[in-house]
Amino acid sequence: MSISIPQRKLRYAMVGGGRDAFIGAVHRHAIALDGQAEFVAGALSSTPDKARASGRDLLLADDRNHGDWRSLLADELKRAADQRIDFVAIVTPNHVHYPVAQAFVDAGFHVVCDKPLVHTIAQADALVAAVQRQRTIFGVTYNYTGYPMVRQARAMVRAGEIGEVRKVVVEYNQGWLASHLEGSGNKQADWRTDPARSGAAGAIGDIGSHAENLVATVTGLEIESLCADLTRFVPGRALDDDGSLLLRFQGGARGVLIASQINAGLENDLRLRVSGTLGTLEWRQEQPSQLVHLPHDGPKRIFTRGAPWLHPSAQRASRIPAGHPEGFIEAFANVYGGVMADIRAKLDGSQADPLVADYPHVEDGARGVRFIERTVASAASEAKWTSWAG
Amino acid sequence: MSISIPQRKLRYAMVGGGRDAFIGAVHRHAIALDGQAEFVAGALSSTPDKARASGRDLLLADDRNHGDWRSLLADELKRAADQRIDFVAIVTPNHVHYPVAQAFVDAGFHVVCDKPLVHTIAQADALVAAVQRQRTIFGVTYNYTGYPMVRQARAMVRAGEIGEVRKVVVEYNQGWLASHLEGSGNKQADWRTDPARSGAAGAIGDIGSHAENLVATVTGLEIESLCADLTRFVPGRALDDDGSLLLRFQGGARGVLIASQINAGLENDLRLRVSGTLGTLEWRQEQPSQLVHLPHDGPKRIFTRGAPWLHPSAQRASRIPAGHPEGFIEAFANVYGGVMADIRAKLDGSQADPLVADYPHVEDGARGVRFIERTVASAASEAKWTSWAG
Amino acid sequence: MSISIPQRKLRYAMVGGGRDAFIGAVHRHAIALDGQAEFVAGALSSTPDKARASGRDLLLADDRNHGDWRSLLADELKRAADQRIDFVAIVTPNHVHYPVAQAFVDAGFHVVCDKPLVHTIAQADALVAAVQRQRTIFGVTYNYTGYPMVRQARAMVRAGEIGEVRKVVVEYNQGWLASHLEGSGNKQADWRTDPARSGAAGAIGDIGSHAENLVATVTGLEIESLCADLTRFVPGRALDDDGSLLLRFQGGARGVLIASQINAGLENDLRLRVSGTLGTLEWRQEQPSQLVHLPHDGPKRIFTRGAPWLHPSAQRASRIPAGHPEGFIEAFANVYGGVMADIRAKLDGSQADPLVADYPHVEDGARGVRFIERTVASAASEAKWTSWAG
Amino acid sequence: MSISIPQRKLRYAMVGGGRDAFIGAVHRHAIALDGQAEFVAGALSSTPDKARASGRDLLLADDRNHGDWRSLLADELKRAADQRIDFVAIVTPNHVHYPVAQAFVDAGFHVVCDKPLVHTIAQADALVAAVQRQRTIFGVTYNYTGYPMVRQARAMVRAGEIGEVRKVVVEYNQGWLASHLEGSGNKQADWRTDPARSGAAGAIGDIGSHAENLVATVTGLEIESLCADLTRFVPGRALDDDGSLLLRFQGGARGVLIASQINAGLENDLRLRVSGTLGTLEWRQEQPSQLVHLPHDGPKRIFTRGAPWLHPSAQRASRIPAGHPEGFIEAFANVYGGVMADIRAKLDGSQADPLVADYPHVEDGARGVRFIERTVASAASEAKWTSWAG
């Protein structure tokens, strides 16, 4: 990724992501990678002692190492502009997203929030309204959109290279919840299977929402109605650990979305296939540098990251030459790079390069919340089709 | 495949499979491969002149080269036992399967019939009853069951090596009908998209039925209810060219079945994934010699055809050493080899080796007909779930 | 493969290939596949009793089931033209190739002989001279040349699609001789590691010769000099089980050839990579239906068997549609199909279609013998480069 | 990678790596990734103006942004301990490595230097002696050793899991120098094909040295003698762009090493295959998270990064869960992480965890220099074998 020359590093705070957390460290690696921002403040856990211990691990100054996110917010509001954070990253369990995001947006801060954005459509609508009112920057870490070959796929579909889209099959399969991990000391399993913290859905919320976002990002299609079957396979589990959906898109395309966390032996198998009148595209997250294009009238083609014949949006999302693998953190960093480009532009009063300022916005997060809510509604319904509009 | 020593070659006739046909030649290659049977009689087309011209191409003797299947049947009934065919292979378009199969079974002949077996559940039931009454051998060429690694998958699932099955995803995607081929001189496209000849379903009948059979073969699971969305994407097409189904199996497993002939650029992408409590199996027809096993507690394993550690049923389905690829015709030949083993045993009054006499029976064919009928019913229904029983 | 309509089936005899043999059965399957020839006579072992027992297994008539190849030859010469064989297939251990081939050619018979053709350059020269003198058809079963995608590679290289060839890397690695199998009842291991039967080389003769032939077939390059390192890894083994060579081709291209039978765990991993000024081609025998083309100026392309955009020589080498895997036997059958096309043309006084009559000739076999002899010479030499001419 | 909690960030300077450079940015990303060190000083180009402009791009303070490495060194020596750099990263073209590295080591600084280490064995010996005398930490960025699955391969080979090693095949193929890029404004091509800057070898020095290091790292084998063929394919090129070597290792193992930059269409195809008496391991840099193990007595196994059953040295080299791809930068960061662990231990007077302090040392760099020198000698020799000792 060709980075514009920074005048200074941006400053950021983190809410959540302390000891025992998984995704917080990924966010920090992703932000660190390009050397564009420094980590200056945090409220790294909902448990004040753990929050502060985590902050010390990460070399936060004591006066910016908070036991509570409200204290962080209050403190930042008091600081001079040249000390104040440029954005906050919210990496807590899902149920904390809404109050923190709403408070920081209301206070005028730029925000990066993990997905799924919030628990309810009502919360999502409130947050979208606040962002629009406050004109703040708000990124949602649907991180898979940061992969260069996802951007290449999007560019090819949007340019009509596979013709009119007819069929979309997206799967996100994992195996790590194939047994009853929750309650055994695995913090990730604990909160992700707890309705109070995870939300109305399990696998569908945690990874199905990524699948929905990937489809929307690449194809631009809008779901018209859906038909879901959600299952709790592991005895004693409180939320779905497996879901399969039939999708009908506006304009007539059809789809299948599968999200499952009980596919024992699988790791992180997110994959997308989009077929149009002129050909098919296939992408797999576990081999992210490849995009397979099957044209109807010639041999299969495999596009790889870093090639000069890629769409500029894919080229710009890459740091090193072809054949030198980039991965998950680099894709994540591209999402952050996009947010930071918008923040810098706002600071400068300039316009960010749209090839860099390319990231999921609060509206994408809100659409994901609707997806979860309508899927849960469909799963509870005897009717075949549940409308997207609700 | 270790072939038992034949006393003599078996004799067979073919109905259908003349000039312009596709699958008839495959059947003949498959039967020829092991040198166990000779092609002695036929009625190779529904057009008498074309039937006879096709028979001459294939060196049939004039007196056994018929213009019509009824003439073939009548002639065979008049022949002495040491000249009469041992079995008939029915490789016509679907609508001809039933009358021919019924007539030959009623006359006491052994039959191999292509799939889908017949057009209606009523026909299927009648045929099953006739076979049981006549005690004839009846094989259905769900040819994908002949692949050694499908047999290995079946053996592993049945032995509990992936634990209790929870989720099954089967897809059969092709691209050859992505445009309106019918009516342009492509005989295969013509009859397969014509309800009068193909039956009540298009893609679901032609290839979805293979997918259903593969799931049943490997897992032994029985469908309890299903929810189907069938689509005709190509303007002017009379039958579905795309279908997606949610499946619920007896005992609680869940599944997804996708069959589509409009995935432009895809060739013959039949693939199966079965996840159980202890691991996952994956198989793809386009790389048929590999079976991927993902255990929950160790590295991914790739079983390959020809290895001495395979289940005997997989070993016996193989002719040449590991690393020397076998393909579609060899798998097809295994189905025929199974039928012929049963025929030889019947001739000898012996018992066939069950590792060889391993092929889909008339009951499997009947189950496939039910699958098609219930899928079409579900697609027409507003109810979410359509029961298998009907 | 589009088969020209036969007037009658050809008749063939086999020398070697009885019980305990491996490759004889492959030859019979390959010949049977297309139903173009019938197996009518044989001398299936050097042990007369075993020869006759093997012939009975395979339903040979008693008067054509010989205990000795000389008896077979004498008998055939006495038969009327409408009974006599059209060709003989020689599938014995290597040391028997020469006397049998020479005798049958001298007697005017068409021959198919396994590789390596003979033991010495002198024998090879004599045989080439005899074939030219007798104007008989003589095919050598370098069977890998029968794969459609090898023919596609040849067509692309010859058409300049990868520019001028610079670098060739060919490997043929197996693992089955990683331990001391010989002397333990494995007939294949016994004769292949015995200099008296196998010839001057082990792995280099058995599989290195296939690698040499593949390079010559695809590229047309001629070796100018070579530098070989041959090793006997398994204690007590009498011949090399591993070899690596540097190659210099006329015109300046460079190459590496590796042949090894001690790569424990590998099956039949023959692979070729050819790089030219404009791109690279890669082919692997274990995935024979794919040819990978890496152009210097665009995305990787994967050609697959059966596609309409393949070169006609590749299309004609295929029996069934794309996505329906063909394998080793089908490729082998293409070599036989080529020989039989030439035999039929000779019978008819016509010209065979060169797209079908495409198979390795006696001269290719002779070149392979030279390859083995020069490689062994290089391995014994202190000089870096050993000339091809000798 | 489980990072020990730092008391403070380390400070580092960089020599080379300014505008137009490629690898400098990779080093900076790799160091930044884990947030363990900050970039505080530099002499980023041999052209003073470009050096300072590059430093300003990267936000270096003016007083630590030098036009010349001697100025950097002099300045650091004057600084107080709590400001002075903890290490210097040397990322210049090859010819500058030696004087800079020698000067910083002589001054007592810890060093990370790119490969190949220096131009001559004499320089290498002098540097090794200096490091041993000064007891400084010295890492060489043979970055491919930082991949978790390379460490897994090393652990498996060293533990005897493939038995005694017999055959090693390593290839490093690229295509970017297939045409005459040098002299056309491509700085990378310019210096890498210039003997004065690149050294005595082209492809062999630039990427062949990585291949040699990979073999040594994974197997521990020592080369006894080698036989090289080096070629300059592109007209006008001053150094080899292609090389192939036969290798003989102490103890009897054999090998082939191929390094080529004219394989048009290839990207960065470094691959290793090691066969032992009990099985084979295969690894490809372009799919770095997989290690293929082919045991002689069971199905192929694919180990993947992040699995709990990996060797601790592989587990520790990983930051995020299995299935979330890590790549080139992460591997590079592991090398830096190892160096930094040793530096921290030195600062603390403690012992670094050997699972973290795992990186190529100055002696590995020196062995690489010998490899290049002996390869060039062999290429110029008529003798088949050139001894490693010289």
TrEMBL record, chains A, B, C, D:
Top-level taxon in the UniProt lineage: Bacteria
Domain Gfo/Idh/MocA-like oxidoreductase N-terminal: start-end pairs: 10-142
InterPro entries noted in UniProt: Gfo/Idh/MocA-like_OxRdtase_N (IPR000683), Gfo/Idh/MocA_oxidoreduct (IPR051317), GFO_IDH_MocA-like_dom (IPR055170), NAD(P)-bd_dom_sf (IPR036291)
Residue intervals of the GFO/IDH/MocA-like oxidoreductase domain: 150-282
Pfam families reported in the protein's UniProt record: GFO_IDH_MocA (PF01408), GFO_IDH_MocA_C3 (PF22725)
Name recorded for this polypeptide: Gfo/Idh/MocA family oxidoreductase
Source taxonomy: Bacteria, Pseudomonadati, Pseudomonadota, Betaproteobacteria, Burkholderiales
